[in-house]
Amino acid sequence: MVNPELLKLLVCPEDRTPLHEAGPEVLEKLNAAVKAGVLRNRGGELVTDPIEAGLIREDGKFLYIVQDDIPFMLIEEAIPLEQIEQGE
Hints:
By secondary structure, this protein is α+β, with helices and mostly antiparallel strands.
């Protein structure tokens, strides 16, 4: 979980829009894709570690992983959420 005060300050590094925390349903879908070995970040790298938390861009297109309460805000490491929507 990201500190609420920090969350107010964080924005997407690409388009500068606000972020919100990912809910359990999104995390469950992402982790199912990780387990299946099919989840990739924007840089094309396979995501192999379970995702415990994340921040979603305002438009809902990308998630930035949060590990040990630290948001990783690199554009290339963002996860395109269309990957989990395709499986529905």
